[in-house]
Design brief:
Blueprint: E1 4-6, H1 20-26, H2 28-31, E2 46-47, E3 56-59, E4 65-68, E5 71-75, E6 86-90, E7 94-97, E8 106-116, E9 126-133, E10 149-157, E11 164-166, E12 177-180, H3 183-193, E13 203-206, E14 216-220, E15 225-227, E16 233-237, E17 242-245, E18 254-258, E19 263-264, E20 269-271, E21 276-286, E22 294-298, E23 301-305, E24 315-325, E25 330-335, E26 340-343, E27 352-357
Parallel strand pairs: 12-13
Antiparallel strand pairs: 1-6, 2-5, 3-4, 4-7, 5-6, 8-9, 8-10, 10-11, 13-14, 14-15, 16-18, 16-27, 17-26, 19-20, 20-25, 21-24, 21-27, 22-23, 22-25
Length: about 350
């Protein structure tokens, strides 16, 4: 199986006076180069953004085959610094056999693989192919990616019945926005090209993360891709009468919303999943007639205290604070020193802690 990649050196009489590498270098701008010290003419490999998953299918009733309809993309796979990216096109359907099922679930892969002997990759060829690789019969782990490749799809092979396609291609880039399937892929790509080579104000989109809250739009902060304001939210409350002790984190027992599963139920604190500026709002009504206040704790240190509530039953105090947080910083709420009180039975709107990333 083979598609067409551009540009290879001509192999017939009448060679042009320019090299294929020079042609690729000339076309770097349309590819949206992502340069780095090691690869100044690099690009983000992948199929064209928006290519539908319906182009890939499992065919037959057993034995099974796969079929992938025509598609195009960009691949930056050769190790030479000046090699530059290749565009490619598969102008006809690509088909092949799927290995028979085994005794456990297996995950196979389909990858675009580039070979260019003129760039010294030892392949002895000038080809671009859609390559099927059977995974090990060990469960849900896919096989390792072939050399000089980018992923198109996974094929899930059950122990019985028809295989299914997981449409998880690597996506090509454009100037304003990069596209990924998961936030882990975002992080892996930043590691690959290094943070210093991410353009300022670069945008990214995550389409199909297993944790839905990680899907959406991201902006480059200078050190990491962070979600849009308001995308990180947490709200918790205390609904039952609860004993409180001074300088001990309040044990919020009812989680109303936790978009990124950031509440640590053991330590009774919230762990920031991304850097940014966060708004923290908390209130508490206590049934014991003691004076008390609330402390907003960042990494175990008090950042702000409320005013003292009166020493009467069912008195209420609240506090709002705006805090810059790094990923991994913690937020907790504590009563002040010496308090031994009982939180009154609350509602979703009383005895609450709310945290929202605002910038």
């Amino acid at each position: 199986m083979a598609g067409t990649a551009f540009a290879f050196n001509w192999s017939t009489a009448g060679d042009p006076s320019y090299t294929a590498r020079q042609l690729r270098q000339m076309m770097v701008s349309p590819f949206v180069a992502i340069g780095s010290a090691a690869r100044p003419l690099g690009a983000k490999s992948g199929i064209r953004v928006g290519t539908p998953g319906s182009i890939a299918a499992v065919v037959g009733t057993g034995p099974y085959t796969y079929a992938v309809q025509p598609f195009v993309g960009v691949i930056d796979a050769e190790s030479n610094a000046g090699a530059a990216p290749y565009t490619y096109a598969f102008a006809a359907a690509e088909t092949g056999n799927i290995n028979p099922a085994g005794g456990v679930l297996r995950v196979d892969s389909l990858d675009v693989v580039l070979s260019d002997k003129d760039e010294g990759d030892s392949s002895g060829a000038r080809t671009v192919q859609l390559v099927y690789t059977a995974g090990a019969a060990t469960g849900s782990l896919p096989p390792s990616a072939p050399a000089r490749s980018h992923r198109v799809a996974y094929i899930n092979v059950p122990t019985a019945g028809a295989p299914t396609i997981s449409w998880v291609p690597e996506w090509s880039g454009d100037p304003g926005e990069w596209t990924f399937n998961t936030y882990a892929e975002v992080q892996a790509y930043v590691t690959k090209i290094t943070a210093t080579n991410v353009p300022p104000q670069q945008q990214a989109t995550v389409l199909a993360d297993p944790t839905p809250a990680y899907n959406g739009f991201y902006s480059w902060s200078g050190s990491a891709f962070v979600p849009a304001p308001g995308a990180v939210r947490f709200k918790a409350s205390i609904l039952a009468a609860t004993a409180l002790t001074g300088l001990v984190n309040i044990p919020y027992s009812t989680i109303v919303e936790d978009t990124h599963s950031a509440w640590n139920s053991t330590n009774k604190n919230w762990v920031a999943p991304f850097a940014g500026t966060y708004m923290v709002v908390t209130d508490l009504k206590q049934s014991t007639a003691v004076a008390f206040c609330l402390k907003v704790m960042k990494n175990g240190t008090s950042e702000k205290e409320s005013g003292n509530a009166q020493a009467i039953a069912n008195s209420l105090c609240s506090v709002t604070e705006y805090l810059p947080l790094a990923a991994g910083d913690t937020i907790a709420i504590q009563p002040n020193t010496g308090v031994s009180a009982t939180a009154s039975p609350g509602t979703a709107h009383v005895n609450t802690l709310e945290i929202v990333r605002i910038a």
